[in-house]
Write a structure and sequence with these properties.
Radius of gyration: 20 Å
Oligomer: single chain
Largest sheet: 10 strands, mixed
Shape: globular
Strand content: 35-45%
Amino acid sequence: MTPASGLPFALAMALFVTGAAASPRVLGTPEVVFDWAEDRCEKWDIPDAPARAWRDAGGGLRLVAGSDQSRASAGPDLESLVRDCAVLHRGAKSDDPAAFDDRAWIAAVFPRADGRIEALAHVEYHGHLRTDRCAAADYARCWGNTITALVSTDGGASFARPPDGGLVAALPYPYDGTHGRRAGYFNPSNILRDGDHLYVFVFAEAYRAQRRGACLLRRPIDGTAADWRAWDGAGFTVRFADPYRTAIADPAAHVCTPLPGLRSTVASVVRHGPSGTYFAVTPTTRPGPDGVKQSGIYWTSSPDLIRWSEPVLLAEMPLLWRRDCAAPAAFAYPSLIDPDSGTPALDTVDDDFWLYFTKMPLTAGCRIGPRRNLLRQRVSLRPV
C-alpha cells in the first residue's frame, strides 16, 4: 500500500491490523559501533545525527552518522567497519542566509542504480555568530534551518551541492534574526523508496504560517531537489519556495501540513518486508501507563506512511533535549538498520534488526562535550 492510495480509511486500517507485524522489543545490551576515544579522527569527529548505512557498488557497507564535518566508516559488513578520516562534506560557513550554506550535516543517503549517491543535509544558519544578523547572539534564538540536497559522483567519497543549489525545504520568509527561537525545517529521516517515489520526513517548528510537527515529503525517484513536494493534508502538492529568489504572495501555500499524531522528530523509518508495515522511531517524552513521563526512544507503525499508531516506548533512556542532569549520560539520534536488507539503502527490515543511537556522557554543569559513542542494540519482532 502506498500513501494516498485512495483506499477508504476503515479498509486501510483493517488491512493494517490484520497484516501488521508484532511489536518490536530490544534484546541484550548495547554494543559500541564507534568509540570516540579510539576511532575519532579529530576532536569533533562525533556521531551527531542518526546513523545511515548503504551498500556500495562493490557490495560493501558504508555508514555515516553525520556531524558538520561528516565522515564515514566502511567495511565488508557492519561488524567490520573502519573509520575513514576523509571529510565527506562540510558547509561553507557562509554569512549570507540566502546561500543556505552555513553548517551542514549529512542526514540521509540514497544510492542510485547509476552509481550516484544522493543525500539530504540538515543545514543550520548560526545567526548567534553574526550579531549584525541576530542581535540576541544566542544559538537557539538565532537558529534558522533548511534542508538541501547533496550528490556524490565518486562512490560516496565526497558530496557536493548540485549546480542549482539543491534547496529542498525552506521557510517562505527571509531570515531576519527576530524569531526568538529556532525556526525552519530540521532533521531529515532516512530516505525511503516506495514504488516510483522517494519519501522523507522532516520536522517543522512553528513559525508564522508553518505549524509544528513531522512533515512527509515525496519525490519521483528520477527527480531532482526541486521535485520534492510536501503533504498538504490530502496529497503531495506543497512546493517549498526560496524567499530570496521568488516573490511569495501567499506564504501559507508553501508550508507543509504536519501528520497527526507525530509530535516529535521521525528519526528513522523502515518497511517491514514480511508484512508491508512501516515502522518509525522517535526520541521523545510521553506519559507512561501510570501518568509519569517517560523519556526514551519510541516506535510507531503505519500502513501507508500517513496514518500512524500511538507511539509506544521501545527503550527508556534520558534524552539530549530533555536532559536529566542526575543521569550519567544523555542519548539521541535513533535509527533502524538491517544489514540483511535486500535494498541498497537498507530501508527494509525483516524480523531481526538493529537500533542505533548515540550516547553522550554529561560533564560538569550538565553539559555535552565531544566525547560520545555510537551504540547499537538488537531489536526483534519475533514472539516471545
